[in-house]
Amino acid sequence: MYGGNVKNAVRMQALGVLVLLGAGLWTAGCKSAPPLTQAQALTLIQAKYDSTPATPYSIWVSDQGMQQGVKAKYWVGTKRYPNGYWADFNLTPDGKKVLKLASGGDVIQWRPDRPYDSHYAITVMPLASTPLKASDLGEVQNLGDDKTVVFNENVTLDALPSALKEMAHDPGNDLTTKRMATFTLVNGAWTVKSIE
Fold first, then answer.
1. How remote is the C-alpha of 162 from its chain's centroid?
2. Residue ranges of domains in the chain
3. CA-CA distance, 56 to 96, in Å (whole number)?
4. 140-188 pLDDT tens trace
């Protein structure tokens, strides 16, 4: 009777050892993902932006911007219409050095619905590139096997002349956009999967 208890005890110990060994092998095969900090996420997002060719930022030019463009000598009025608020403006040589019209050509046909129409605007494209900069990251979140973070995408205007920077800060232009980056593990390291 005593021998049976010993045999059962030995069996239980052997079973316990097998369970522990099996658990150890299972956890050894499942490597945990490395952490992703906000600083690392910011570095990865900015590296993605820096590796992507910068494109010009389209500037929405309202009545205020038209006046700024005249003052900067980017365009000059060439014709005023009888209603008093329609006009044509030609790009100057100085204007052609720093921007182009989204509509093409070198004549701005200013045709608002009424005087001081705050909804009417044209779009100009600076010739200098406007790179993107990431800032103000939120907390890194888990999304299945991936991770996500919400952040601000900012248009960098450093390469633009001061008059175009001023126009870009006028109402109607959005220099900051809320984005979400998704990160995935590739060969044990976090990489940017997408930015939406």
1. 23
2. 1-30, 33-54+130-163+172-195, 59-126
3. 15
4. 999 999 999 999 999 999 999 999 999 999 999 999 999 999 999 999 9
Tell me the per-residue pLDDT of 64-116, one tens digit each, with 9 for 90 and over: 999 999 999 999 999 999 999 999 999 999 999 999 999 999 999 999 999 88
Which residue shows structure tokens 């045999």?
Answer: 7
**Which residue shows structure tokens 């993902």?**
33
Q: How far apart are CA 181 and CA 175, in angstroms?
A: 18
Distance (Å) of CA 164 to CA 46, 68, 161: 25, 9, 6
C-alpha–C-alpha distance, residues 195 and 180, integer Å: 6
The CA–CA distances, whole Å, from 133 to 8, 42, 73, 122 equal 68, 10, 30, 26
